[in-house]
Records
---
Amino acid sequence: MIYTLSYEDIKLKCMFIKDDTFGTYFITELFDNEIKLPKELDITKIDENNLRISLDNLNFKSKKLKIFGKHLYVLSAKNEILDFDDEAINDNILYKKEEIIEILSKLIHLSNGNFMVSSIQDYLGVISELNLKYENLEHFYRGHYCYKFKLIPSLFRNKKYYLNESLIYMDFKSHFYNEFSNKKYIEILTMMQHYKMPTRLLDTSLSPLVALFMATNKPENFNMDALPIGEVIMMNEETKNIKFFDSNLTTLMASLSVLETHYKIELYDAIKESIKKNDRTIYQNTNAYKRFVAEVTSELPKFDESFFDPTVLLKPKHIKVGLINERIIAQSGAFILYGLTDIDDSCDNLLETRTKERIFITNHAFIRKQLEMLNINMAVMFPDMDHTATSITKKFK
């Protein structure tokens, strides 16, 4: 819906934008003359054609931007005014989708607390700001090409993968038995992840620039109908909650990959019931738990069940890994390791990291050129012959 804003002798077309991801805004049309609008406005929708504007209740903060050589006022709203979705933005309204994205990326700080950037300079400014805000926490970064992607490992994106996890794991190990016979569960999972097999690992990085590269790196066969916006999620965690590659907890969670599906389901249900009834014997008396202990003790012979807290299997953990291959070294790689979950529910919200900040990435092509100037490209991020050859070819194309 397009409205008309009258202020003294000036009339401007204006519109509302509301989105759960990007926030709520009141945006005027472009105009040539620089005028001074009130810094604070309270705008209320009366009906489809009328608005009430007041200076008494200060709900909107204005910020003047110079875009396309003209002046534009953007007012970010704290309260919801008008609902709409992406499909409602078409060529017949005041701004096209691409123009709205450009406007929001100039704001950087979105009205709902998220961020949107269109250059490395703006991105590093946000990262510096957040590092100061969370200076006592450790930071992990996850970059993906589309802001609609969720924090879900590949294993849980396809039910058939989850139902056959142990078979996938053992099949892979059997093909390279001489190489993997003495490897730990997490080492084999990491190698499977390296070759893009479905696992309970989700890639993260200790480097914000690596995450930025991933947010501009279009996946193969990407055909999702979404706005051209990537995302970097900055996860800030207390040191005590971070686990390492060879920790006992990492072994406990990684060993779940070898358990047959019916045992994982039985163990998950038994642990949930034990927590609810505060009775440890419920899960301890199941065949699933006995199978789990048998698997764990093959790697941890001195596993002491009296110290075992079953809730640790339900909460994903940030894992710092060893520098076991060139890709992890190049990408300052880390992982989120997921444990037991209800396959019929989304595990997107299971990660109980201290805080999560969302930084939306626009202007992908320009940022990729900036990253190339810093020697951050496909050949560096994926230091194998196939990716290096592809990177060289693209550079000259």
---
Amino acid sequence: MLRRVLLKFAITPAFTGASALALDSPTMHVSTLLEQDPATSIAEQVMGEAYHRLGLQLEVHRLPGERSLLSANTGKMDGELYRKVGMEKVYPNLMIVPVPLLTYEIVVFTRGTTFVVNGWESLRPFTIGFVRGIKIVEQNTQGMKIEPVLTMQQAFQKMELGRTDVVVANRASGLAVIKALQLEGIGILTPPLVSFPVYHYLHQKHAALAPRLTAVLQKMHKDMTIEKIQKAVMATQ
């Protein structure tokens, strides 16, 4: 059974409008990774507000990475909460809403292992932990020694046990897990492996909704709503 997590808005009335949506408002069901981390929280709140402005509710379903994408691509879900550009090349039923929600920065976390980060190839000598389903990491570590897991917590726990040398993850997400688990002695190597914007995706059955969502998100950029959400979430980390 799918784990259903009803999105609860942790943002102020200035973001959500003066009144709540009616309980019978149409609901968009979107999938995302299992993690509850700052990046996901930002994307949830941004898209929750965007759908709210269109008279819709948002319900987020947390699933393992590949299943999340497949559920969105097959139409079992209405879309994918956030992913990098180009996912439609592999999942052709998905269509991007071309307004960035946040910038995703992939970095290398270590516990005593030090080396010069010079692109993905510099990871080859090491055993790499990461969350299964993060496509950019999967694609760029093919043929290397990898330990994919379901959650970020598991990735860091494996590194703590010495089963991996490094964890490759989004900076904000990794820092949140380190804080939650009260881990010590973990550092971030520089520079980042890569940074890129992430976007909301809809199943093509909602093609008519895409222009409306695009316009709303553009307005949210202009009125600083997205920036305010980003700052509010990061201030709690």
